[in-house]
Structure formats: structure tokens, C-alpha cells
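Exercise: predict the structure of this protein bound to phosphoenolpyruvate.
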Amino acid sequence: MRIPFVIGNWKMNTTVAQATTLVRDMLAGLDRVKGVHKVLCPPFVSLSAVGDLLKGSSVMLGAQDMCAKTKGAYTGEISPLMLAELCQFVILGHSERRQYFGETDQIVNAKIISALKHGLRPIFCIGEKLEDHEAGMTEEVVARQLAEGLSAITGSTAIVIAYEPVWAIGTGKAASGEQAVATIGFIRDTLARLWTNEIACNLAILYGGSVTGDNIAEFVSYKEIDGALVGGASLRAEEFVHIAEQTAIIAKASH
Ligand code: PEP
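Solution:
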């Protein structure tokens, strides 16, 4: 049985002081939630402070990006060796990285390979843009992102996949549970073809895109959807705890 995830992507929000306040506001509530993997992904500069606060709790830590190189003359970059000392997870291939920073499937692939090599669990984001969605190209796009993003990688359940339709991210227009489950089913079938059925069945595939306390139930009531990657709502302590609680209650009751 797969354990669901609730992952908070704080994006480029919170100073170190604000991040520590936010963690303090949500930590006790999150820690009480059982049967769900809870992961916070603050900005790089807050990883250390947030990590200190999470010590001894059941809440895990992730970064929002990573350089594929391990060290050297790459000014401004953060290496997997640096992250491996601080956190367990790293978001890779987020649509904002693809859109604003020119990340290609090949760059994302190099990052995933490097993260795995250094013991970090990649949260690999894929999803179609609005024009692809409207043109009925969703499956074609995610199949390409999977094939190229996972190229030369031996099947690994260390990878967490986040299906995030770009048109649903930060727009308040979430996909329907039905739309999400259809594409997630396709992603699992694609992974079974790429690797093995066993790996595909054991790997977590989450939904992301305008998830809130009000709509989380719509997604996690499908046993095929293994939780959520949450942006905006993860900056609201009470709501994020509620998302984790709902995920735990529904997963326990329905799966
Ligand atoms: C995200 O950043 O991955 C995300 C899903 O954002 P939001 O929940 O704000 O749409």
C-alpha cells in the first residue's frame, strides 16, 4: 500500500524569520497527523533553520531546486552535496523553473540522476500547459516529460511524481478529481511500460495545482492519487494542517 504525501512548496516566499514562525505555527498540528508523509519545502536560505525546528518530529524537509553538478565554478548554484546534509527531498522540474528559467527535460533529467546519486528523493513535477490541455495533448506532453526526464534512470520508488497541470498552478482553477485521476492513471501506465508494473504500483504520484483545504478531499478520495503538492495553501498554517488531516482521514477510510 502506498502512503500518501502532503508536500508544501513555499516557493519564493518567507524570510528566515517568517519561515521559522510558519513552521512553529504548523508543526504540532502536522506532527499529530499519522499515516501521511509530510514534507515542507522552504527557500534554500531557510532550510537549516527549518530543519532544526523539524528535528525529532515526523515532518520532513525538501528543497525547491538543485544544480546537477556537485561542486565548482557555478556561481549562485546549490549542489546535491550541500542539500544532502540538510534535507531528504528536492522538487525538480517545477513548471515555474521550466517557464521562467528555461529548464528543459534534459536539464531536469540530469538533476534527477544527480539527486538520486546523492541520496535525495526527487519530487519530479510534470504537467501540460493550457494550450496543450485545450488541444487534447495532455497525455502526449506528460509521456514526453516522463520519457525524457527519466531517461537512463533505472526504476526507482525513491522518486515521487507530482502531476501538476500548469493551468491549475496558482490560478485558483484546480483540475477536477476526475481529470487528475485520468492523467495519473496514464502516468502510472507509462511508468509500468518504462520500468515495471511493480515499480509503477509502488511509486507515489501526487496531484498539484490550486489544492486547498476545501478541495483536497476531491483528490485524495481517489486511491490512485497519493496526496498533493501544495503551493499557496501551504503558506497558511491552519489550512495546510487541515489538508494533511483530511488526507490522513480519507486515505485511512477509503483505501
Ligand atoms: C505548486 O507550486 O506546485 C503549486 C501547486 O502551487 P499552487 O498550490 O499555489 O497552485
